[in-house]
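Notes continue from the previous slide.

Worked example: a multi-chain complex. Inputs as given:
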Amino acid sequence: MTGGLEAFLQGTIRTATPLALAAMGETIAERAGVINIGLEGSIIAGALAATIAAPGLGVGAGMVAAMAAGLVVALLFALFVVTLRADQIITGTAISMLALGATGTIYRLLYGQMGAALTVPTIGTMRIPGISTIPIVGRALFEQPAVTYVAYVLVPLIAWWMYRTHAGLALRAIGESPEAAAASGVRVARLRTLAIAVDGLLGGLAGATLVLAQAGTFVEGMSAGRGFIAIAIVALGRWQPIGVALAALVFGAASALQYFFQAAGTHAPYQLFLALPYLLTLVALATARGRSIAPAALARAEEAE
Amino acid sequence: MTEPALALREITKRFGSTLALDHASLTARSGTVHALLGENGAGKTTLMRIAFGMLHPDGGTLTVEGTERHFRTASDAIGAGIGMVHQHFTLVPAMTVAENIALGGRGAYRPRDAREHVREASTQSGLAIDPDARVADLPVSAQQRVEILKALARGARILILDEPTAVLTPAESRELLARLRAFAEQGGTAILITHKLRDALDVADDITVLRHGRIVWSGLATEASESTLVETMVGTSDRAERESARSRSATGEAVLALRDVSVRNERGRVTLERANVVVQSGEIVGVAAVEGSGQRELLRVLAGRIAATTGRVAIPEYVGFVPEDRQRDALIPDFSIVENVALRGAGARRGRIAWNALRGETTSLIEHYDVRGGAPSVRARHLSGGNQQKLVVGRELEGAQSALVVENPSRGLDFNATDAVHGRLHAARDAGAAVVVYSPDLDELLALADRVIVVHAGRVSDAPLDREAIGRAMLGATVDRADTPPEHT
Amino acid sequence: MTGEALALVSDVLVRATPLALTGLAVAIAFRGGVWNIGADGQFLAGATLAAWIGVMLGATHAALPLALLTGAAAGAAWAGIAGILRSRFGVLEVISTIMLNFVAAFGVSYLVRGPLQEPTHVYPQTSSIGTAAELPVLVPGTRIHAGVLIALALTIAAWWAMRHTAAGFRLRATGANPFAARSAGLVDAERVTMRAFLLSGALAGLAGAVEVCGVTYALYENLSPGYGYTAIAVALLARLNPIGTFVAAILFGALEVAASALQREAAIPSTTATVVEATVILAVITVADWRARRVERAA
């Protein structure tokens, strides 16, 4: 039975990693008052970039390329939302569509429509000596791809930055009241753009994780709504880094549940397990009681003057 | 002769085709309180925003203690020792006092140090405040203290305050003005933007008067008198005439009646508690309250815009309502004027819309209420604030002859527009309507109302037509029975 | 008209019909302040019901009208879930409708491989619907079906209703400024919003039912190649105007037919159509913003 539990925990963390990375980025953007529906676009762009770069240049280059691709998508989003002050919702939807269509097009052009298994080098799991021998959780937590350890470090780092630096204070102020922030000398547009950029970087990294640490290949639309799920995770985690990381674990667990049940031998249709994260998103958002806890200026297109 | 703390010379500023400032000059001497007077729209805020680096002048110079400066942003002005407390507070409501004061700093942020910093500044300046209090939970006067502390914490030696007494009771105003005097006596310079003559004469050393973007008077406060200032500010001194417009046309017939009405908001907080109000036809009832006391809810229950949680509400089928934020609550800026007129009663209308009839009504409304700025098909956003207000007042009056509730009627309007709106309210009352008016400006309220009620902490009480008594009641002090004249008991 | 040209017109109209209905659905939703990104899921809900009715009652006269009506109802219900989540729990419908898209797709996948699968259990699709459930073909020799007329009729009805009825005015007012609608118009904004969800969902569901009854005659996976998302481009290009939506749908129909042809002839992936559609949305936003700034500067 412990074998099943261990596999479940390991699966949880593995599935949660890209979600947590994307959600961390989205937390930063949303604390700055921007809801980035284009995050999905950053993730899929990152996935494709990793697929293209890794075979020839190695997984490290794949990761970097992925982050760059995610960044580019996010900056396009920022151009419309921050500079042109366009509606965040429509822009985000369009950016995601654009990225999904563009990645599909590029993929087909480069690799044909065969659908034959395109293999991409993957990063194996890295065992952290010592702590990985802790029973049950040791392997789950400390025998993971390197990206997961990046996530482990990133969460407390972002939490510290947000609450213990003036820049973090300014970011949170922008999300609550951009006018007040501007009156205090905060460069609202610049900080917002930076927040969106970081969101894109982490989204791209999440995409790279899907390819280089999980699937080992690229499939059109493989982001499968993770960008939107990340938004739900941010709400569930109450827009606080630690909370968001825990919420990502919850989602990871929901997806990993299918292994658990498969091991137990249920006859539930596999589509139910596939649908579980999305249903969970709905539940998470419903219980998050968004309005009173979300950053007050979230999704308002007005800029501080 | 020592250099003045701040000198603006020949400042010109255009917004599109409008000339907001026309070679305006202002010299503030160190260690003085300088009052910048003018009516709404005269350009006072624009001039001071230029001084604070928020706007760039098209012409003219700015010197701080003798050195010419060109501020690119507010940060530059702050660096030069200038601080500004705006009319609409620029604090983050969800954050604490300490966080708000720390905002804009650099590097690492330590909450404990920030708290200490606030306590120090608070003791030094005599402005008491709790660093850990959430700004949203503070009363308006306390929020204003935070704004001032914030400016002082950044080393402001020149403090600009934009209409600071507009949101304060008379007692709080006096306290603030006393602090400004103390600040000046310690060597600081305070520039007070205000349209209240009384405040200017009470506390200022120097006065500058702006009218339509030009300086029309400038000199020592001792050289000025109320009547001369009024004349320069507005051109006529017929304020006195308006005072006597109080009517005795109340018929005694109750049009709006609330009995033991309480209102609870979505968060469960009781915002209005067991209110008993009767408004008769042919009278104007003024509502006085400090912001957040429950007057918003009272007005909306009287107008039938929100439901009472308990108690009895007896109002006519449609009560006209002119809300404070007309762009948000009264108009749809992207809709045409006709469509905005059609907005009235949209909730109850059924079937086809009679656009022809509505267009006819709109045309006559525009003419009758002197709404300038376009034909019925023009979008409402293209009208000026004053014309938008006239449109809303007209639409509501035409829809409800018997009752009208107005919230802060002169907000953002210049003298002429305000005058026009006041005239409408008086005319409606004289024609027999029951009118309720809320204004944060006690002078406006006293000029309009036949009697006054005060809302404090959700409770409604009567008050005599006396500034001081009303001010005390707004803060919760009980009104002395002896103050109330016989016919109002 | 030559056979080739007729075939082209046929392809474009067939492609445009679901876009016209889903475009109308999105336009009405957006006008009412509802960000319905879930037209795809609502489309599938409608298609599912229509296919089920079409297979079960395929021989009866009532099959077609029943299939279309239940399809619309199913779409409305699917959208209604997002509506309730918004009004009761404050859930942003952008996300909930997208989530429901995924759930709907998985639902269809399960149904066509399970309970609704055709009798031989070989293909992941339903049986074909009975002939009584099929929409009549308008021009013999082509695939142009009566769904085009349904779309056109609803488009005109929507345009008229928005301009001339009190309900249409309430929808527009609530979408443009819910505060003023409530305060000045005494409009029950909650009710109007919910109705916008249901009406929008019904139209998208009807689009799915029409597609099943007029083109595919069965339900299978990937029935919608993203109509719900293209519909956004259609609606925005038409500036949320019903008549314009129909025209834009034809344009986009032509675009997608061309993209398919390009893929066949020149091996240019059809996904380029999505790229063009997204670019159209961004372009419309940019132009609208540029226009707004011009007005601002002139004021």
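Summary box: The interface with chain C takes residues 16, 304-305, 321, 323, 328-335, 339, 342-353, 355, 382, 392 of chain B (CB under 8 Å). Residues 237-245, 481-489 of chain B have pLDDT under 50 and may be disordered.
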